[in-house]
């Protein structure tokens, strides 16, 4: 396995991990790898995908939190009083 794929995933930048995942997908689609190498590449790809999704989820949570800070709480004057219980 190439040295780049031996680098711990947690040490890769998001861009490096994406590039490595793209490379693995291309290798798997080419059908040029031996079975053992294909399984190892697939396993690495799954681990990369799991890490990338986790990072994206974390980034989304940060964005949501920041957007929440920007929103102001509605004051009593701004609350829609046209809705009431029937």
UniProtKB/TrEMBL annotation:
Belongs to the XseB family. GO terms for biological process: DNA catabolic process. The keyword Nucleotide-binding does not apply. It holds the Pfam family Exonuc_VII_S. This is Exodeoxyribonuclease 7 small subunit. GO terms for molecular function: exodeoxyribonuclease VII activity. Bidirectionally degrades single-stranded DNA into large acid-insoluble oligonucleotides, which are then degraded further into small acid-soluble oligonucleotides. Keywords: Coiled coil, Cytoplasm, Exonuclease, Hydrolase, Nuclease. The gene is xseB. It catalyses: Exonucleolytic cleavage in either 5'- to 3'- or 3'- to 5'-direction to yield nucleoside 5'-phosphates. GO terms for cellular component: cytosol; exodeoxyribonuclease VII complex. HAMAP family: Exonuc_7_S. Residues 18-69 form a coiled coil. Heterooligomer composed of large and small subunits. Its EC number is 3.1.11.6. Its main location: cytoplasm. It comes from the Bacteria.
């Amino acid at each position: 396995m190439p040295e780049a794929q031996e680098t711990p995933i947690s040490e890769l930048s998001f861009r490096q991990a994406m590039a490595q995942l793209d490379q693995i997908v291309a290798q798997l689609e080419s059908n040029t790898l031996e079975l053992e190498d294909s399984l190892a590449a697939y396993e690495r790809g799954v681990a990369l995908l799991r890490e990338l999704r986790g990072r994206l989820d974390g980034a989304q949570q940060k964005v949501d939190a920041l957007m929440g800070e920007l929103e102001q709480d509605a004051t009593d004057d701004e609350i829609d009083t046209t809705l009431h219980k029937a």
